[in-house]
Structure formats: structure tokens, C-alpha cells
Amino acid sequence: MAGNSFGTLFKLTTFGESHGEAIGGILEGCPPGVEIDLEAVQREMDRRKPGQSAIVTQRKEADEVRFLSGIFEGKTTGTPIGFVIENSNQKSRDYDHIKDSYRPSHADYVYDQKYGFRDYRGGGRSSARETACRVVGGAIAKQFLKELKINAFVSQVGSITLTKSYQEIDLSLIDSNPVRCPDPETAVAMEDHIREVRKAGDTIGGVISGVIQQVPVGLGEPVFDKLHAQLGKAMLSINAVKGFEYGSGFDGVTMKGSEHNDAFNPDGSTKTNHSGGVQGGISNGMDIYFRVAFKPVATLIQPYETIDKKGNKVQAQGKGRHDPCVVPRAVPIVEAMAALVLADFVLLNRSLKA
Questions:
Q1: Contact call for residues 41 and 139 (beta carbons, < 8 A)
Q2: Sign of CA dihedral 50, 51, 53, 56
Q3: What is the pLDDT of residues 78-129, one digit of tens each?
Q4: DSSP string for residues in 270-323
Q5: Which element (helix H / strand E) includes 184?
Q6: Which residue of 10, 86, 160, 173 could cross-link 29, Cys pair, CB 3.0 to 4.6 Å?
Q7: Element (DSSP H or E) covering residue 83
């Protein structure tokens, strides 16, 4: 299987399956001497872990990360940072019923066709549990990028939308509620909706908005490795993501060029920021903002029709512990992937100036 690594200089490789002994990763390229707050890393893990509230999967995992290399006396050594996260609460029997059939909108069928074999326990390598490793890598990247501010928050659940822009809300309130929407009134409506959907045995999708502030000018390469292109790849690599837009995004098509152009101030900043902090694939020093769309979780705790390995129609029903809406737990994953992208470009800039 290819495609287990992300990044060029600041590079994360992950391993492991949802119901294996452990998951983990190797982070290469982090410069030596970066002070690492291990408690801060664990706090990021706690934001993503299952069982943290009544509106997420009740799988109980401590998600405690154990570092094996690359950190000594609280600082990075410049060598590969190896880490593992034990899987302590596997219930593989919850997946015995899909051993010989395929769940709709999952990776089951394509894995079987591509590899001729699959780990059906929770999706194996295709499980969103792999993203815990990304959160570890992103937490290290955040500490390397300590001068930048990287935030993500839930801005939509189903049809319930936060209509305020990120400039109008207090981002310090992101973790003040289980939904991770920084607007208290909207958060209550979102949480109620998720509970209703879950009670019906169904699932619902949502949108996570991201904002990166205090970004220096010059990150990104102008052709294939545009900053926004790499951010898009990072976000689209997250399980259940169906869409990515930055800056004015799709709404920009309704504007005229005279309205959309970001006029300059004397100091090089711009009067507006329809570009979303990126011009010509390179950061311009303005805030980078983007939106990431997540589909409804594909596992339904209600009967459905599917096919088995022989193509026969069969009846099935989801079992086990699953999220009715993935976006509350995906917020730290979005932040982590953004941090990994920016850390990579910071190192690439350093290499050009060396």
C-alpha cells in the first residue's frame, strides 16, 4: 500500500489499523531544539478521542501517545520522532457481520477489489482512527510554528449554519461546548439536531471552518505546490471530507472582478481578503481562511440493503460505536493537517535561503 506519508521536508508517515494492537507514526524533518510540551500534545489528542461527549462515538480509548524517539529533555533532537498509540478498547466482533459483505459508501468494496484482501474490523487502515496519528504530528507542528495561530471550528451541521464570520466570533469559545461551535446559541441548535439524528439511528454531515493568522508572506510555490493546493490535498485526505474551498470560494463566482480584487494598502496588506490569504499560490500575509465539508457518517444503526462478495443482495445493519456526526471530533484533525502543511512550507523556505 502506497500513500502512507504526507509532506516533503516536514514529513509524517503513519501506520496501524483501527482494531490492531496500536497505531502510530514517524515524524521526520522537525528541526532540533524545538521545545515540546507533551501535555499540550495530549490535550490535542483528548480533543479528538472517542467517548468525550454524548454526541460522539462511545468507544473508550485513552489515546495516550507514547514517544519512542526524537525528543530528549523536552526538546526535539532533529532525528525522526517515533510514537505509538495503543488500541485498548477493540471490539472486533462488532464487525463479524460484514466479513463477507460490503457496507455502502465505505472503502470495503474497493479495498477488496484493489488488494484482494481486507481487514474488515472497523475498516482497518481506512478507519478514521488513523487520524489520531495526524493529530500527534500536527501538535508537534503547532509547537514548531508557535508564532502562528491555527484554529478550526464547526460552522455548519446539516442545515444549521453559523452565519457570522470568524472575525465576529470569539475563537476562544471553540472548546466551550461539545459541538465545537464558538457561537453558544448556534451550538445548542447543532447539538440538539445531532441528538435527534442519532436517536433515529441516522447520521448527519457538516462543515468545519479554518483560519490561520499571523502567517508570513512567501509560503507556497507558484506552480504545482501552491499553498492552497496543498491545504486542499491535506483536507481532502481526511476521512469523510467531500469538499474544500478557501477565500471567497464558490461564492466568488457571483462577484465581478472589480468587486473581488483585493486592493493594496501602502504596507502591502489588502483592504479586503477575498483571496483568503493566498495569491498566486503564495501566502500574502493576510489571514488564510477555508471551509471543509464532511459527509454524513456512512455507518447507519438501521437496516439497509447491500451485496456480499458474490454479488448477492443481503440485508445488514450497523453495529458497534459510531459518530452520528463527525465534525466535532474532526476539528483538531483539520488544525493538525493545516499545521503540517505550513510547517513543510516554512522548512522549504528555509532551504531556499540557505
A1: yes
A2: positive
A3: 999 999 999 886 555 556 667 778 888 888 888 888 888 777 776 778 888 9
A4: BS--TTTTEETTEE-SSPEEEEEEEPPPS--SSEEEEEBTTS-EEEEE--S---
A5: helix 184-199
A6: 10
A7: strand 81-86
